[in-house]
Amino acid sequence: MEGLRQRWHTLSTAPKTTVVLMLAASLLLTMSRVLPVSLAVSGMLWVVSLGLVVGAAVFSLRRGQSEP
Question: How far is CA 51 from CA 33, 47, 48, 54, 68, in A?
Fold first, then answer.
């Protein structure tokens, strides 16, 4: 639950393009759970979505620091 809260906070503070990328990654993750996809592909999707979350958080933090 805490992870979802952090993810939502990241989404609400991230730029719009990052939000779209995150939603696409979440959709891919959901599809990979429903469809019989190989474990390697599912793992790759997890890594990509985690990278997007971290990237969005770092980008929003940097953006917040650079703006007065």
Answer: 19, 6, 5, 5, 27
Cut 0.90: pTM above it: no
CA dihedral 29, 21, 64, 55 (to 10 degrees): 60
Q: What angle do CA 56, 27, 59 make, to 5 degrees?
A: 5
Mean pLDDT over residues 25-50, rounded?
Answer: 72
The separation between CA 47 and the C-alpha centre of its own chain, rounded to angstroms, equals 10
Phi, psi (deg, nearest 5) at residue 14: -85, 160
Phi/psi of residue 41, each to 5°?
Answer: -65, -40
